[in-house]
Write a structure and sequence with these properties.
- With about 160 residues, the protein is of the alpha+beta class.
- It is about 55% helix and about 10% strand.
- The protein folds into two domains: about 1-40; about 50-155, no CATH class.
- The chain is built from five helices and three strands; from the N terminus they run αααβαββα.
- Helix 1 packs across helix 2 (about 25-40) and helix 4 crosses helix 5 (about 135-150).
- The radius of gyration is 19 Å and the shape is globular.
- About 20% of the residues are buried.
Length: about 160
């Protein structure tokens, strides 16, 4: 896992440096420090990704993103479609760890929703419209992520 971190840190630094190789010693020190800091603060075990679960998750996320994007565009362009922003309280079912972190990020990337606060197993989500659909969609995404990371729901 630290090899992957090294590659990602080096790639990120190379992009930030715009591919210049003028300060290789400094670059090597920054990359090493980033990897060591990442290893030091990381208390999360790496997920056991499951191919079938990842494929299902990709489908759920793709369909949800398209539907959400169309809905957001329709609401923004049509005067008769209401936009009633609000806050939604969501009780997270995933255990703490990579799946829960991934869910929080994925839900924030979904059109019309943004996780604004996280309190252990409780999320506060800003939504474009307060309705009953958002918790259902969030639960579906959460189950898909659980299957993808090999959680309890992986064989369902």
């Amino acid at each position: 896992m630290s090899g992957l971190r090294l590659v990602l840190a080096a790639g990120g630094w190379w992009l930030l440096n715009e591919g210049r190789s003028t300060s290789l010693v400094f670059s090597a020190l920054v990359i090493a420090a980033a990897v060591l800091c990442g290893l030091r603060v990381s208390d999360v075990r790496p997920p056991r990704w499951r191919l079938r679960g990842l494929l299902q998750l990709a489908g759920v996320f793709l369909v949800g993103s398209i539907r959400g994007g169309i809905d957001v565009a329709r609401r923004a362009l049509a005067r008769s479609v209401p936009i009633a922003p609000g806050m939604l309280d969501y009780e997270l079912q995933l255990p703490p760890g990579p799946g829960a972190h991934f869910f929080t990020g994925a839900l924030s990337m979904a059109p019309g929703s943004l996780v604004v606060a996280e309190h252990e197993a409780h999320l506060e989500i800003h939504v474009l419209v307060e309705d009953d659909a958002t918790p259902t969609l969030a639960a579906r995404l959460e189950r898909s992520i659980d299957r993808a990371v090999g959680g309890e729901d992986a064989h369902a």
